[in-house]
Amino acid sequence: MVYEKQGRYIIPFDDVPADRAPMPEISVDERRNNFVEIETGFPEETAIREAKRCLSCRRCLGCALCWAECKPEAIDFSLPDETLELAFDEVVLTCGQDNAFCDPDPELGFGRYADVLTDLQFERMLSPTGPTDGLALSPLDGRIPAHVAIVQDGRSAEDPGLPASLILGVNMAQLCSAQTRDVKVTLISPLSDEFKARYESQIRQITGLTLIEGTPLSVGRENDSDPLNVAYTSRSDEKVTIAADLVVILTRPDTAAYLRDLARQLDTAPPAF
Question: What are the per-10-residue average pLDDT scores of the chain (273 residues)?
Fold first, then answer.
């Protein structure tokens, strides 16, 4: 039945709004030691019921249904538009979920060779819900690689973000070895003193992983049927080249353009990594 509330006529609905359906999730035990999605998504029946909760898929039509159904009376149509100026002692910008990354060094072959991936692409590949069901496969020919090289892009041993980037590389190497039979993984990166003191001895004990202290120089191949040649400068400043069937680049995070613009408007420093 249509009813009136403060001069507005309201048409009630039996099923809208309804309580929001809880998102199904896997158990805590199922989340350990993997990258399985925690939220499993709604079954079809629940998804249809959730879709019916939508009050309007267009702009506000002034029906006031939201206002009528708001128990805390939080909606006030009589409030005029106004611009507020607030004073703060400090403004902190964070990156949020819109991650941006520096373009990899073109010498490392990303974008030129199909079997050169970024860490995010490789992490997605290793996920059980990824495009290959967690198996490491070369996008070039669909074969299982015998040797995967994970190389560091554009970081020096003094870079404060190096340890975290290397830990990501180590985690991917372990996943790759566990999920892909007989694959060897080589991780090439400059190693900071902090990393060597805290992690190196443990990492060198990981089966199937070879850790090399060096600076990656280039990735390339002479013929289409050849493996990739990964060149790097060793700790003793010698140029060394190894062959790999798949190369993964550990990328460098960057500040998104909109955050730089916001930082300029607020006269503050953009988020740093």
Answer: 50 58 89 83 87 59 73 79 86 69 90 93 90 90 94 87 89 92 93 89 91 95 91 93 96 81 80 63
The pLDDT assigned to 220 comes to 95
Q: Residue 256: which residues within 8 A CB-CB, separation 6 or more? A: 95, 98, 99, 100
**Strand 8-10, strand 209-220: pairing:** unpaired
> Which residues, in sequence order, are bridge partners of residue 184?
147
Is residue 126 within 8 A of residue 134, CB to CB? The reply is yes
Burial class, 173, CB count within 10 angstroms (exposed 0-12 / middle 13-18 / buried 19+):
buried
CA-to-CA separations, 173 to 33, 93, 257, in angstroms, rounded: 14, 33, 32
150-171 pLDDT, tens digit each = 999 988 888 888 888 899 999 9
Is the bond preceding 17 in cis, omega lying within 30 degrees of 0?
Answer: yes
Q: Are 248 and 135 in contact (CB under 8 A)?
A: no
Q: Which helix (H) or strand (E) holds 50?
A: helix 44-51
| Placement of tokens 């040649």 in the chain | 229
Number of CB atoms found within 10 A of residue 221's CB: 15
Q: Can you give the residue ranges of every domain in the chain?
A: 83-100+254-273, 103-251
Give per-residue pLDDT as tens, 24-43. 999 988 888 777 888 999 99
* Longest distance between any two alpha carbons in the chain, whole Å: 84
Q: Which of these CATH numbers, 3.50.50.60, 3.30.450.20, 3.40.630.10, 3.40.1080.10, describes 103-251?
A: 3.50.50.60
